[in-house]
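S.,

Sequence below, as promised.
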Amino acid sequence: MNLYQITLFITSFFMLFLGIFVYTKNVRSDINRSFAFLSASLSIWGFGMLALALVKNREDALACSPILHLGLVFGGPALLSFILSITEDKNKINHYLLKIGYACSFIFFLLHISGKFGGDVIYSSGRYRSVPGTAGPYFNLFLCAIAFYSCYLLFKRYKTSISGIERNRLGYLFLGVFVAVLSILTNILNVSGFNVYPLFHLGLLFFNAMTAYAIIRYRLMDITIIIRRALVYSVLTFLATALWIGNVFIFSSLSSFLFGYQTFFSIGLTSGIIAFTFLPIRDNPEIGKCLQSKMPKANNRLRL
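The prediction came back faster than expected:
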């Protein structure tokens, strides 16, 4: 797997895990349900993009393309639904717009079934990518409109809030949503034929990281998490795994460049680096206290 495929996998898995985690914390909450639906839609898109990046022939790529479209088609209204829930927006016009958004998504879903949404793939930059169908440009316009409007509503609520805790929650959430929405443009340009690297999956990873931080630090969605030693070990293990994968990729690429093929030496060197750097840190009994002491205070406001 290359770096693009690795980051797609991490993003999709993290998004799916966070959505399930939030949903199970309160299955009756509209906020939790809307976030879970948003995570499910985007994780389906992510795994579809990953499958499209992994296949080696055109037939398999054509089979994978509908998966990512199926996940993305309801992503816009799912985002707006989550924003209306988290901001407690009671504006009737916005809720009418949400219904119109779902109606449009259903129409795009029917076009997706009929093959007019995106029925072809091309091989470019070492991987297959989907080519928009006749409905593609209209969907891109619809997605951008609903995504940026959701950002506007979230930022409006942040600016008018008088609660320090709520401003912290919404501030970090807005940063994540805004970066993710901006990154959509790179994928739209990429599938439209421009030589632009697609960054939407990295934008989603940043959005999930900001959401997770707001949950842990500021109890976003009224979710309370106590940071224990086991959680610290889990975070360190995740970081070590990500570091190991990154180093394997770097040293394997270097080995291929120098010797013309990948060697077991690169993997062994990477494992040695992890063993001699991560294990002493993990076994340090003060690591949990250190990490918790570095966390910002709950009453410190985030300024945008």
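The chain has a mean pLDDT of 78.

Coffee later?
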